[in-house]
């Protein structure tokens, strides 16, 4: 009984501040769970879309300019005695500044993101993600976490609903467009005007069937050939994995880097298969960019661009996959495919990814250690992944409950999945990552 009273007192002393969450009711439900457990819960809305997801007496609005935000959020932390900060993605302009203020005050930071394990999982880490993740990068540490984790159920759950992926996004962003006068100084973290993005994305969605049929023909022809091929999945231009966690200013630089290396070092019989991102709205017109670069480097006859279809259909015969730092690399390793990352991805661990440079990857790609991959999956599932999904109605409830449990128990990144310093950061900075 005394232990229960102490636990309640600790919970009652926790003052939790929420900033922007994913485009779903997740944070409102998570806040409700924490409040029912005895925490005091607060929210700051930065735009009309935020207000739509969470409004009431426990929410306040910031309507100032971005340069005024650090003073505002630090004042709120001091006024309310905030002990915990919860936010989605750590590199949005407001979130980066809030994390800096939280760190200066010893406030615990919990960051959410879509799951590294797909689908039916969400990410919940302390302090930061990707290059700033505190999850160990040492194989021995990963194996140790796996041993202490116990059994983990990887049964697929919470299948994605296309409606829950698209509709909340549209409602949120159009609300911000039409109610812009209510938050006149809000600076969105996305690159493109929402209405234009929806128009272009809608046109691509309308043509998806035709694009996929073309890709099926291309795949049939590719898989019938005897030539070796490598896979290069494209990432979105607005992805923070590119904008914040890499030294590249545009994904066109990434494409150029890989095509130059492929032309110079890959076996002459090898092909390179580039695959568009399923959410690409087509602003950059990557097929034309790739075609011009392939002509410049005289490898047009060795380049295939797939503008649709499923990436995993390529895994069975590929020689390897090269990526900036996409989660596609983790999916490939689970199928035994050699993977080379250009920057230190979360899964870029000795024994899992190719240890040499890109030039050696084309010639002698190193296969992942299957047992280490299994240990890594088990380790992250037990420490920095939680069951749930924002793209499934039942999954949203599950994510809220599971995240609340981890936060209340102080078990995020536990057991053993937290390093005092981000173990990938030094390597990233050496490559020019501006963090």
From TrEMBL:
<dbReference type="InterPro" id="IPR007833">
    <property type="entry name" value="Capsule_polysaccharide_synth"/>
</dbReference>
<protein>
    <submittedName>
        <fullName>Capsular biosynthesis protein</fullName>
    </submittedName>
</protein>
<dbReference type="Pfam" id="PF05159">
    <property type="entry name" value="Capsule_synth"/>
</dbReference>
């Amino acid at each position: 009984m005394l232990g229960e009273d102490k636990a309640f007192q600790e919970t009652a002393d926790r003052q939790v501040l929420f900033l922007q969450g994913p485009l779903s009711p997740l944070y409102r439900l998570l806040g409700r769970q924490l409040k029912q457990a005895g925490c005091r819960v607060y929210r700051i809305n930065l735009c009309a879309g935020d207000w739509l997801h969470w409004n009431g007496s426990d929410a306040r609005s910031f309507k100032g300019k971005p340069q005024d935000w650090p003073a505002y959020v630090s004042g709120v932390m001091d006024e309310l005695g905030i002990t915990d900060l919860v936010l989605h993605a750590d590199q949005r302009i407001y979130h980066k500044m809030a994390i800096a203020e939280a760190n200066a005050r010893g406030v615990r930071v919990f960051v959410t993101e879509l799951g590294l394990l797909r689908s039916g999982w969400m990410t919940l880490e302390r302090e930061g993600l990707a290059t700033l993740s505190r999850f160990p990068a040492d194989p021995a540490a990963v194996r140790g976490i796996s041993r202490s984790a116990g059994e983990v159920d990887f049964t697929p759950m919470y299948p994605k609903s296309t409606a829950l992926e698209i509709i909340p996004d549209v409602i949120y962003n159009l609300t911000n467009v039409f109610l812009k006068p209510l938050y006149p100084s809000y600076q969105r973290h996305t690159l493109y005007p929402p209405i234009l993005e929806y128009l272009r994305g809608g046109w691509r969605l309308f043509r998806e069937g035709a694009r996929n049929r073309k890709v099926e023909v291309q795949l049939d022809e590719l898989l019938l050939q005897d030539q070796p091929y490598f896979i290069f999945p494209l990432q979105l231009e607005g992805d923070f994995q590119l904008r914040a966690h890499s030294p590249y200013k545009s994904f066109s630089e990434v494409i150029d880097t890989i095509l130059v290396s492929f032309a110079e070092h890959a076996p002459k019989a090898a092909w390179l298969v580039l695959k568009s991102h399923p959410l690409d709205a087509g602003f950059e017109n990557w097929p034309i960019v790739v075609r011009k670069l392939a002509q410049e480097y005289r490898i047009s006859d060795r380049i295939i661009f797939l503008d649709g279809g499923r990436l995993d259909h390529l895994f069975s015969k590929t020689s390897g996959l090269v990526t900036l730092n996409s989660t596609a690399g983790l999916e490939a390793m689970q199928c035994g495919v050699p993977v080379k990352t250009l920057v230190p991805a979360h899964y870029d661990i000795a024994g899992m990814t190719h240890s040499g440079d890109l030039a050696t990857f084309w010639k002698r790609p190193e296969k992942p250690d299957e047992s280490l991959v299994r240990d890594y999956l088990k380790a992250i599932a037990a420490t920095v992944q939680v069951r749930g999904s924002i793209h499934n109605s039942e999954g949203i409830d599950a994510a809220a409950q599971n995240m609340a449990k981890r936060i209340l128990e102080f078990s995020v990144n536990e057991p053993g999945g937290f390093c005092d310093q981000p173990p990938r950061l030094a390597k990233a900075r050496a490559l020019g990552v501006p963090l």
